[in-house]
Design brief:
It is a single chain. The protein is mainly alpha-helical. Helix content is 53%, strand content 7%. The chain has 1 helix and 2 strands. It has a two-stranded antiparallel ribbon with strand order 1-2. The longest helix has 31 residues. The chain is elongated.
């Protein structure tokens, strides 16, 4: 039972990490498209936030 719980937690962390990496790569790609010989124009503020939902039941 403990091994199953540990595996589920590991799977959740892997999934979260994959989503973050994907979102960051997409953002970086969009910013690279804005690069000119004079620099980059990005006149918006971007906040990367991290959070975690509480887990009520892992079964």
């Amino acid at each position: 039972m403990l091994d199953e719980y540990k595996q589920k937690i590991a799977d959740l962390y892997h999934h979260r990490s994959h989503n973050y990496d994907k979102a960051k790569a997409e953002c970086d790609k969009e910013l690279e498209a804005l690069v000119t010989a004079q620099g980059i124009l990005n006149d918006i503020t971007i906040f990367f936030t991290f959070g975690r939902k509480p887990v009520d039941d892992i079964s």
